[in-house]
Give the backbone structure.
Amino acid sequence: MKLVDDVGTDTQDGYGAFTVSNNGTLVFAPEPRRGDRTLAWVDRSGVETPSALPPRAFEHLRLSPDGTRVAFAISDGDRQDI
Protein backbone atom coordinates (compact mmCIF):
# COMPACT_ATOMS: atom_id res chain seq x y z
CA MET A 1 0.00 0.00 0.00
CA LYS A 2 1.35 3.40 -0.99
CA LEU A 3 1.29 6.02 1.78
CA VAL A 4 2.78 9.13 0.15
CA ASP A 5 4.04 10.24 -3.27
CA ASP A 6 7.46 11.52 -4.31
CA VAL A 7 9.63 10.19 -1.47
CA GLY A 8 13.27 10.95 -2.28
CA THR A 9 15.72 8.16 -3.00
CA ASP A 10 19.50 8.03 -3.24
CA THR A 11 20.41 7.57 -6.91
CA GLN A 12 23.58 5.64 -6.01
CA ASP A 13 22.16 2.93 -3.77
CA GLY A 14 18.37 3.28 -4.01
CA TYR A 15 17.77 3.85 -0.29
CA GLY A 16 14.66 5.89 0.49
CA ALA A 17 14.91 9.24 2.26
CA PHE A 18 12.52 8.33 5.07
CA THR A 19 12.33 6.91 8.57
CA VAL A 20 9.60 5.81 10.97
CA SER A 21 9.64 6.63 14.69
CA ASN A 22 8.74 4.23 17.50
CA ASN A 23 5.25 5.75 17.70
CA GLY A 24 4.68 5.20 13.95
CA THR A 25 5.31 8.74 12.69
CA LEU A 26 6.65 8.74 9.13
CA VAL A 27 9.17 11.45 8.22
CA PHE A 28 10.56 11.79 4.69
CA ALA A 29 12.41 14.14 2.37
CA PRO A 30 10.50 14.72 -0.87
CA GLU A 31 12.02 13.91 -4.23
CA PRO A 32 13.48 17.11 -5.70
CA ARG A 33 11.56 18.53 -8.63
CA ARG A 34 14.25 18.19 -11.26
CA GLY A 35 12.40 19.85 -14.13
CA ASP A 36 12.39 23.17 -12.28
CA ARG A 37 16.16 23.59 -11.98
CA THR A 38 17.83 26.71 -13.30
CA LEU A 39 21.51 27.37 -13.91
CA ALA A 40 23.49 30.40 -12.77
CA TRP A 41 27.15 31.35 -12.49
CA VAL A 42 28.07 32.33 -8.94
CA ASP A 43 31.33 34.20 -8.36
CA ARG A 44 33.50 33.92 -5.25
CA SER A 45 31.72 36.87 -3.63
CA GLY A 46 28.31 35.19 -4.06
CA VAL A 47 27.03 37.30 -6.96
CA GLU A 48 24.73 35.23 -9.19
CA THR A 49 24.47 35.64 -12.96
CA PRO A 50 21.49 33.62 -14.27
CA SER A 51 21.90 31.66 -17.49
CA ALA A 52 19.62 32.25 -20.46
CA LEU A 53 18.56 28.57 -20.44
CA PRO A 54 14.98 27.75 -19.44
CA PRO A 55 14.37 25.59 -16.34
CA ARG A 56 15.06 21.93 -17.08
CA ALA A 57 16.14 18.72 -15.33
CA PHE A 58 19.86 19.63 -15.15
CA GLU A 59 22.09 17.00 -13.52
CA HIS A 60 25.74 15.95 -13.14
CA LEU A 61 27.29 19.38 -13.71
CA ARG A 62 31.05 19.48 -14.26
CA LEU A 63 33.12 22.64 -14.52
CA SER A 64 35.98 22.83 -17.02
CA PRO A 65 39.51 22.99 -15.56
CA ASP A 66 39.84 26.67 -16.50
CA GLY A 67 36.44 27.49 -14.93
CA THR A 68 34.96 29.04 -18.07
CA ARG A 69 32.58 26.29 -19.22
CA VAL A 70 30.22 23.76 -17.72
CA ALA A 71 29.00 20.41 -19.03
CA PHE A 72 25.77 18.85 -17.78
CA ALA A 73 23.16 16.23 -18.51
CA ILE A 74 19.50 17.00 -19.03
CA SER A 75 17.12 14.25 -17.96
CA ASP A 76 13.94 13.65 -19.92
CA GLY A 77 12.10 10.64 -18.54
CA ASP A 78 14.48 7.70 -18.84
CA ARG A 79 16.83 9.55 -21.25
CA GLN A 80 19.78 11.80 -20.48
CA ASP A 81 21.46 14.07 -23.03
CA ILE A 82 24.74 15.91 -22.49
